[in-house]
Write a structure and sequence with these properties.
The chain is built from 11 helices and 8 strands. With about 240 residues, it is α/β, with parallel strands linked by helices. Strands 1-2-3-4-5-6-7-8 form an 8-stranded parallel β-barrel, surrounded by 9 helices. Helix 5 packs parallel to helix 6. The protein is globular, with a radius of gyration of 17 Å.
C-alpha cells in the first residue's frame, strides 16, 4: 500500500481531513513532552501528523522515537516537513535517514530541479513505500515574492511546480489555504494524480472551508491545535 492509499485510509477511518502539525516554540526542555501530550489527545481525530524543524532540530530522529512509535502503532502517516532543497546526494541522504527511522513522507521544494536534484529522490522514496509532497504555494505573505514570480513566457512558478509534481510522480502538493484560487488552479493541473495539502488555517488566517471547497484534500494545522487550551476540542471543531 503506497502513501496516498495509507493516508486516505487513515482519513476515512477517523473521518478527518486534518493533518496535525506538531510545531512548538516552547523552551527546548518542554517541547517534546508537549508534543507527545497533544498527539496522545488528538491521535484518534487526525488523518496524519507532520513534524518540522521545531522538533527535529533540538531532538533529532532518535529523540522522536516515542512520537514515531505512537504514529506507527495508531496507523497515522508521519510527514517530515524539511522542504528539502539541496543537491541529489544530500537529498537522498535526508530521505534515507527519514525512512530508516519510520517517517512515511517528506516535503520537497521542486525549485531545485529534477536532474541531480529530486529525480532520484522521488524514485528512492517510492521504492521505500513512502510519499513525497512538492511545495507549490506557501502560506506566508512573502510567498508571492517567490512562488508567484513569472517565467519569461508569463507562467508563474507555482503553476510550473504543480506541473512538475504531476510529471515527476509526486504524491501530493502543498498549496496555501489562504489562496483558494491557487488551490483550484493546482487541482486543474494535477487532476487526481496528486493530493492537495493546505497549510495556513487558523493562526495564519486561512479558512478551512474555503480550502476544502477549492479542491484541497487535507488541511495542515499547527498552532490552532497545539496552542489551544483544549487541543481535542480544537481538532473536533476543525473537523466539523
Amino acid at each position: 500500500m503506497d502513501f496516498k492509499e495509507r493516508i486516505l485510509r487513515s482519513a476515512r477511518a477517523r473521518k478527518s481531513r486534518v493533518v496535525l502539525a506538531l510545531d512548538f516554540s516552547d523552551p527546548y526542555d518542554m517541547r517534546l513532552s508537549r508534543a507527545e501530550k497533544v498527539l496522545d489527545l488528538t491521535k484518534g481525530e487526525v488523518a496524519a501528523v507532520k513534524i518540522n524543524h521545531h522538533l527535529l532540530l533540538p531532538y533529532g530522529l532518535r529523540g522522536l522515537s516515542g512520537i514515531i512509535g505512537t504514529c506507527k502503532q495508531e496507523g497515522l502517516p508521519l510527514i517530515a516537513d524539511l522542504k528539502i532543497n539541496d543537491i541529489e546526494s544530500t537529498n537522498l541522504n535526508i530521505a534515507d535517514s527519514l525512512f530508516a527511522f519510520g517517517f512515511d513522507a517528506l516535503i520537497a521544494n521542486p525549485f531545485v530541479g529534477r536532474e541531480e536534484g529530486l529525480g532520484k529522490v522521488v524514485q528512492r522514496v517510492h521504492s521505500n513505500g513512502g510519499g513525497i509532497l512538492f511545495l507549490v504555494y506557501m502560506s506566508h505573505e512573502g510567498a508571492k515574492e517567490g512562488y508567484a514570480l513569472r517565467l519569461q513566457g508569463g507562467e508563474p512558478f507555482y503553476r510550473v511546480f504543480a506541473q512538475r509534481a504531476k510529471e515527476w510522480g509526486a504524491d501530493g502538493v502543498i498549496v496555501s489555504a489562504k489562496s483558494a484560487d491557487k488551490i483550484t488552479e493546482t487541482r486543474q493541473i494535477v487532476g487526481k494524480e496528486c493530493l492537495i495539502f493546505s497549510p495556513g488555517v487558523g493562526a495564519q488566517g486561512g479558512d478551512k472551508s474555503s480550502g476544502i471547497a477549492a479542491g484541497a484534500d487535507f488541511i495542515l494545522v499547527g498552532r490552532s491545535i497545539t496552542e489551544s487550551p483544549d487541543p481535542l476540542k480544537a481538532v473536533r471543531e476543525l473537523k466539523a
